Amino acid sequence: MRIALYPGTFDPITLGHTDIIRRASVLVDRLVIGVAINRDKGPLFTLEERVEMIETECAKLSEQTGTEIVVHPFENLLIDCAHDVGAQVIVRGLRAVADFEYEFQMVGMNRALDNSVETVFLMADAGHQAIASKLVKEIARLGGDVSKFVTPAVHGALRAKFD
């Protein structure tokens, strides 16, 4: 069974994330969405809220692709999370050159820890390259319309946080 891990904070999950999830899910038998518990980032949404949003969005994608998509919170090293879920592949999305520089360093460190786990990069769709959770939260906080960047359910969750 081909298992991949797509890690992130997903605070909140955006259309850019779901694009990567949809495209990655056709490459594997099981796609694990690793939700990072990163207290240093001070997420807007609780872990439970993020997991619920991701499960809701991924249920539709799982039906469409026929791939099992599961959500797995983690707080340990990414490579250890990959071992925990049996992933042979880590999926990462790239939007711009700046993303690549950071991801390049991460791949090097992960390979030094365990070179049996491969990292695969998927380029963001051109229509989603500008989307970043951090920017979506800032726009929503300032009263802007983020409906072009997230699903209606996530948009509602953002509005509930800032209204």
Question: Main traits of this protein?
Answer:
5-stranded parallel beta sheet, 6 helices, 5 strands, pantetheine-phosphate adenylyltransferase activity, transferase
Structural summary, described in words:
The chain is an alpha/beta fold and 163 residues long. The protein has one domain (3-126): Rossmann fold. The protein has helices at 15-25, 47-65, 78-85, 97-113, 133-141, 152-162, and strands at residues 3-8, 30-36, 68-74, 89-94, 118-123. Strands 3-2-1-4-5 form a five-stranded parallel β-sheet, with helices on both faces. Helix 4 links the parallel strand 4 (89-94) and strand 5. Helix 1 (15-25) crosses helix 2 (47-65). It is globular and about 45 Å long. The mean pLDDT is 93.
